[in-house]
């Protein structure tokens, strides 16, 4: 069977070579590479600190909302960056490290019915004391907790959130400062999705003695929310009604509160969460944390849904790799995406992370298949190809109208090709859900100039136009941050 496969492969190669030779004879050497798209970058806002993303309220206002890692949500209205932030939670954050940090205000999503209910959701980091046996204890970055919280717009001003409206929905203590992921978004199903990395450090803790993330690491452990994408329902909430915890729809909350009920479980009773679990989550009524939607992820920093006109709603996610490979995945419900058994398409050895073993298990701890990404690329100087950058930054499938040549392409990028100098990359995948997705590099400007910034995130406005955000500065400090709209020149 193996030999016949090899023969078939050789035969296919022969046919392919013949075909390529004919193409070369017919039309020169540009045959294998589709023409690179040329884009221009139009400034949306400058003078920012560490912009991680752009989103919109879906309320027809045309405003863009920029998430700053330093703790502010900034508004751009009619092309002007408003001086007062929509929300500033910098006082809740740990002191961010002035060289590099992955903590801060990390994600923002507006409720699909924000225009009528004023609800929005954020992910951020907050400090905690920690225990002496934790890897973060006594380190320069200390221990922290990751939080998913809900806020509301203020009653009087659409450009001001109510800072006192916070409801904390979900918290998890982090063993290290890094790999917090942090994106938040509503799916086409109306549920809220958010991501958490494997807890941090390296090798998902397996090379530590003893393993600092448990015997199989966090990403493969379905009893922890770390290393996973989670899905919850924020439209059915728990309230205390006549000393009994009940679940009601979010639209009925204010009526209940007016009649003396309170949000959350009843005093003195077992605490219940302020959200509910979609009954179709993969681990409901069986082992595994009910919030998990998919797992086996290392640092699923950015994700999005292809939910614009012509999109099929697929969930695209960039999972940041360790020493060698970066990857983009299309996430399916219940899927195990391989980390820490695999990095990209390759097997991973936590004790020899720069030499992928030839063999590893193709299933997870419960016999489930490990799902491969749609594409991978390699870190520069590792001997693997294609050599691009060191940290994938997930983006969006373009469904806007200003750049028709980009329609249906997955626009994403890389943080930087090396820590110094700032050398982010803007990339795309021509046919991301097709049979042979391939990574291409955008040409920036007719002069083909480098991006020249640390790429920190992407964003999308109400019209489906896509923005890239970056900074001249590695850390979340200073005023070197900018968000720019990506516009095709072809
Ligand atoms: Ca369960
Ligand atoms: Ca993977």
In brief:
The protein is mostly beta strands and 490 residues long. It has three helices and 31 strands. It binds calcium ion (2 copies).
Q: Percentage of helical residues?
A: under 10%
Q: In which order are the strands of the major sheet placed?
A: 28-1-31-30-29
Largest sheet: 5 strands, mixed
User: Radius of gyration, rounded?
Assistant: 23 Å
What low-confidence regions span 5 or more consecutive residues with pLDDT below 50?
Answer: 1-11, 20-32
Bound molecules: calcium ion
Q: In CATH's first tier, which class of the largest domain applies?
A: Mainly Beta
Structural class: mainly beta
Count, helices: 3
Indicate the proportion of strand residues: 25-35%
Shape: globular
- Quickly give the CATH architecture of the largest domain: 6 Propeller
CATH topology of the largest domain: Neuraminidase
Protein architecture, described:
There is one protein chain. The chain has about 500 residues and is mainly beta. The chain has two domains: about 45-235 and about 290-490, Neuraminidase (6 Propeller), CATH 2.120.10.30; about 235-275, no CATH class. The chain has three helices and 31 strands. It has helices spanning about 1-25, 115, 255-260, and strands at about 40-50, 50-55, 65-70, 70-75, 80, 85-90, 105-110, 120-130, 145-155, 160-175, 185, 190-195, 230, 235-240, 245-250, 260-265, 290-295, 300-305, 315-320, 325-330, 340-345, 345, 375-380, 390-395, 410-415, 425-430, 440, 445, 455-460, 465-470, 480-490. It is globular. Mean pLDDT is about 90; it is low at about 1-10 and about 20-30. The structure holds calcium ion (2 copies). One calcium ion binds near residues 319 and 337.
């Amino acid at each position: 069977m193996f030999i016949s496969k090899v023969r078939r492969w050789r035969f296919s190669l022969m046919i392919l070579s013949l075909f390529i030779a004919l193409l070369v004879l017919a039309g020169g050497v540009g045959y294998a590479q589709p023409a690179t798209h040329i884009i221009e970058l139009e400034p949306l806002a400058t003078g920012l600190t560490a912009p991680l993303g752009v989103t919109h309220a879906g309320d027809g206002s045309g405003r863009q909302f920029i998430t700053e890692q330093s703790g502010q949500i900034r508004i751009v209205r009619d092309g002007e960056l408003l001086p007062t932030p929509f929300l500033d939670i910098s006082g809740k954050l740990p002191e961010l490290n002035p060289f590099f940090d992955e903590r801060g205000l990390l994600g923002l999503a507006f409720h699909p019915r924000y225009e009528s209910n004023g609800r929005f959701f954020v992910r951020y980091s907050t400090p905690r004391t920690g225990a002496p046996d934790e890897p973060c204890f006594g380190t320069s970055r200390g221990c922290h907790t990751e939080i998913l919280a809900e806020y509301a717009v203020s009653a009087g001003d659409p450009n001001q959130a109510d800072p006192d409206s916070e409801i904390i929905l979900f918290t998890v203590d982090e063993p290290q400062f890094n790999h917090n992921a942090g994106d938040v978004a509503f799916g086409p199903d109306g549920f809220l999705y958010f991501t958490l990395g494997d807890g941090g450090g390296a090798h998902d803790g397996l090379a530590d003695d003893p393993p600092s993330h448990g015997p199989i690491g966090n990403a493969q452990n379905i009893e922890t929310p770390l290393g996973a994408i989670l899905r919850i329902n924020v439209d059915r909430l728990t309230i205390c009604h006549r000393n009994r915890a009940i679940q009601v729809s979010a639209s009925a909350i204010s009526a209940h509160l007016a009649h003396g009920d309170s949000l959350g479980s009843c005093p003195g009773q077992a605490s219940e969460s302020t959200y509910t679990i979609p009954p179709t989550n993969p681990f409901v009524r069986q082992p595994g944390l009910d919030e998990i939607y998919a797992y086996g992820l290392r640092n699923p920093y950015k994700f999005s849904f292809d939910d614009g006109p012509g999109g099929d709603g697929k969930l695209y996610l960039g999972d940041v790799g360790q020493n060698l490979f970066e990857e983009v995945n299309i996430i399916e419900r219940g899927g195990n995406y391989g980390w820490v058994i695999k990095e990209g398409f390759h097997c991973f050895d936590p004790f020899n992370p720069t030499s992928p073993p030839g063999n590893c298990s193709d299933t997870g701890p419960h016999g489930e298949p490990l799902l491969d990404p749609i594409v991978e690329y390699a870190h520069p100087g590792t001997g693997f190809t294609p050599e691009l950058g060191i940290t994938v930054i997930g983006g969006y499938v373009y469904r806007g109208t200003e750049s028709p040549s980009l329609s249906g392409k997955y626009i994403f990028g890389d943080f930087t090709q090396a820590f110094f100098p700032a050398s982010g990359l803007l990339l795309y995948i021509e046919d991301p859900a097709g049979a042979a997705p391939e990574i291409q590099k955008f040409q920036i400007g007719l002069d083909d100039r480098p991006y020249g910034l640390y790429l920190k995130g992407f964003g999308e406005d109400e019209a489906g136009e896509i923005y890239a955000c970056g900074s001249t500065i590695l850390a979340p400090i200073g005023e070197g941050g900018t968000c720019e709209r990506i516009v095709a020149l072809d």
